[in-house]
Amino acid sequence: MIHSIRDTVRLWTCCAGLAVVSLPLAAGEVPLPQVAPLTSARLEELVRKELGDVELAPPVTDEIFLRRLTQDLVGRQPTMDELQQFLGDASADKRDQAVDRLLSSPEFGRNWADYWSDVIAFRTPPPELTFLNYDAFKGWLAQKLNDDAPWDATVREILTASGKIKDNPAGTFVGFHQGETTRLAGETARVFLSLQIGCAQCHDHPFDDWKREQFHELAAYYARVSVKLPWNDSGEIEIKDKGKGEYEMPNVADPTKKGEVMTPVFLTGSRSDKGKSDAERRKELAEAIAHRDNPWFARAYVNRVWARLMGRGFYEPVDDFGPAQTARLQETHDILAAAFRDSGFSTKVLFRLIVQTEIYRRGALTQTDDAPVYAGAPTGKLRGDEVFRSLVTAVGLPNVTPEAMKATKDIRFPPPPKSTRDIVAETFGYDPSLRPEDISRTMSQALLLMNNDQIQAQINAQPDSGTVLSKLVATEADDAKAVQQLFVMSFGRQPTEKEQGLALGHVRTATNRGEAYEDLLWSLLNSAEFASRR
Question: What gap in Å lies between CA 496 and CA 61, rounded to an integer?
């Protein structure tokens, strides 16, 4: 059984008739395998072959497929119009057409920019008296994703950006880490390569092959980064070149003595030189990381996308390719990563390959300890920004930002006000790098959906409230149709026969029709299904 990326590289090297190597390499890079052009049908065959005699869940209905696809690509449930149009389409390729439509939507880039922003933000401690605002970075990355800019080029921009964040949002990663060399070394490897090398900062990694020198050689690429921190405005954070200096690996034996000056060396063994400028160093680092033959780069991105779309990654957690991790569907992972590389690192090609497979379109399985992975679709927790978009789609929740606090003698730098979106995203947010079983549902989440004033204001059937619900109650006299619309608004699907009967029973026995619909809508928004991906 193959247990790590190192084993994978050794395997492919042997298959190619080359000498066996051990990673990290002394020099050069071992590429992904060369493969024929990949199709969704071929990807399906690879998965089925590796799964073996596993009984698969039945395919989902059109309705459930559209809900899952819409949640995965644009981060919300489908609207009434989208669902009706899809179900009324008799064409044989309507599912593929839905894929194309959602990948072409501006919402696609925004949803996945939110994902990557969370990947970075949940491990980035804010500096003192400077509140980090990721909005500019999200807007910049959303445009890149919507334009299908090659992922390798995007990462190069992120790692080499200079100037003020407000002028060059790509600098968010380096700037928000305050140019701190060791933190940047560890996070660069984790975020873009799924390598956990942080334990090698103080000593050789106890569970991996990384040596302490390798960690500090990577940190040396950031030796001349200078980050100027403002007061209370992260857009003013500025990345510049120190102009001089080299990186020293601390002297553990005697901290009072000078440490060893390190030459920048990448994890594969490719070397730089001392004396180079910040721009030169970070450019060389970006080239090494985003190189098409980097043994981790394409695999890391593919693993994250696969995990989000399929409910489980090839490796888990998704940011750890360590030898202690057991890979699932190793051959599928390698070939899909090679296809991503050969597409020119096209994000949309990768998404399309996965969501057009039949394995993606399988129904949900009852979650038991022995449920076979990938035999069906596991349920998952929506991210905070996805919960907010779902509330907007369901009840038209407005995004309200209170007035900013004025500075006082006691509070010189008041925190920026939190918008509705900020509150929902913060309450339901979690680190996307966590394993699914480590993502918890909290009392704060339940209380927000139950009691938040703004959400409660949208669950109002009074004619003068102007809410989506009030308009539905006023214009739809047929209770059966009104109930169906509420389910579509909330879940992007029609109610089951049992759900329809329970809902109609409540509405028809209530003394106040409007209040009955308020009860029903409140119940739907507070159900586990509303904040879940299925």
Answer: 13
* Angstrom distance (rounded) from CA 80 to CA 395: 12
Which residue has tokens 């040596």?
211
pLDDT tens profile 382-402: 999 999 999 999 999 999 999
Contacts of 372 (CB under 8 A, 6+ apart): 51, 54, 55
The vertex-532 CA angle with 521 and 84, nearest 5°, equals: 65
163-164/380-381 β-pairing: unpaired
pLDDT in tens, 15-54: 333 333 333 343 334 568 888 899 999 999 999 999 998 8
pLDDT at residue 11 tops 60: no
Please give the Cα distance from 95 to 82 (Å, whole number): 12
Q: Mapping DSSP to helix (H, G, I), strand (E, B) and coil, where does residue 239 land?
A: strand
What HEC string does 174-200 produce?
HHHCCCCHHHHHHHHHHHHHCCCCHHH
Residue 378 · residue 436 · CB < 8 Å: yes
51 CB neighbour count, 10 Å cutoff: 18
Structure tokens at 193: 């390569």
Is residue 325 classed as helix, strand or coil in its secondary structure?
A: coil
442 exposed, middle or buried (CB, 10 Å; 0-12, 13-18, 19+)?
A: exposed
DSSP state of 292: T
Nearest CA to 292 out of 344, 335, 351, 353 is that of: 344
Could you tell me what percent of the chain has a pLDDT over 70?
93
What is the C-alpha separation between 340 and 327, in angstroms, rounded? 19
Q: How far apart are CA 188 and CA 455, in angstroms?
A: 39
The pTM score is 0.92
Q: What is the pLDDT of residue 232?
A: 82
196: left (phi over 0), alpha (psi -120 to 50) or beta: beta
Burial label, 128 (beta-carbon count in 10 A; 0-12, 13-18, 19+): exposed
Tell me if 220 sits within 8 A of 264, measured CB to CB: yes
DSSP tag of 469:
H
Cβ-count burial 91-103 (b if 16+ within 10 Å, e if not): eeebbeebbebbb
pLDDT-based confidence at residue 255 (cuts at 50, 70, 90): confident
Packing angle between helix 297-310 and helix 151-160, nearest 10 degrees?
110
In three-state form (DSSP H/G/I as H, E/B as E, the rest C), the secondary structure along 394-432 is HHCCCCCCCCCCCCCCCCCCCCCCCCHHHHHHHHHCCCC
* Distance, CA of 205 to CA of 199 (rounded, Å): 5
**Alpha-carbon distance 145 to 138, whole Å?**
10
Instruction: Say if residues 129 and 232 touch (Cβ distance below 8 Å).
Output: yes
DSSP SS3 for 428: helix
